[in-house]
Amino acid sequence: MSQAREFIRLNKKDAPAKIRENIHWKRSTQDKLKININGGYQCNTNQGGWGYVIRDRFGAVVQAGVGAVAHLMDTFHAEVLAYAEAIRAAQERGMSRIELETDSLLLQQALQDNSFNLLALGGVILEIKNEISMCFQSAIV
């Protein structure tokens, strides 16, 4: 064995074992319809998709939607479009009390403050905020 390989073998530190946490859907803590949102993106094709599921307080699916999108900029773009489609669907069905959930921390932050207004997607984010405030009696973001 070469000296380099021997050095690497002797000095290799084992990576700590990753703890996998099982994440399960959680019902809304209030009497609201819960909307789970997600977007996906393939950087090699700039294509992706979006999806949402709307469930009642018992976990029964009320409505779901998916779509494919070409010419995405990034994953954030897909997440924003998913959020917009979910809001539109809830509004069209006359839902007034909703709880929205996304795994995108960036999108959560964008919806809670104004720091994203100047981004390329700032207009879409502002539109989502306006629709939430005008069209829903109660909305948890």
TrEMBL record:
Transmembrane parts of this sequence: none
Ranges of residues in domain RNase H type-1: 36-138
InterPro entries: RNase_H-like_dom_plant, RNase_H-like_EbsB-rel, RNaseH-like_sf, RNaseH_domain, RNaseH_sf
Chain segments annotated as coiled-coil in the UniProt record: none
Any Pfam family: RVT_3
Record GO terms (molecular function): nucleic acid binding; RNA-DNA hybrid ribonuclease activity
Superkingdom, taxonomy of origin: Eukaryota
Protein name per Swiss-Prot or TrEMBL: RNase H type-1 domain-containing protein
Organism: Oryza brachyantha (malo sina)
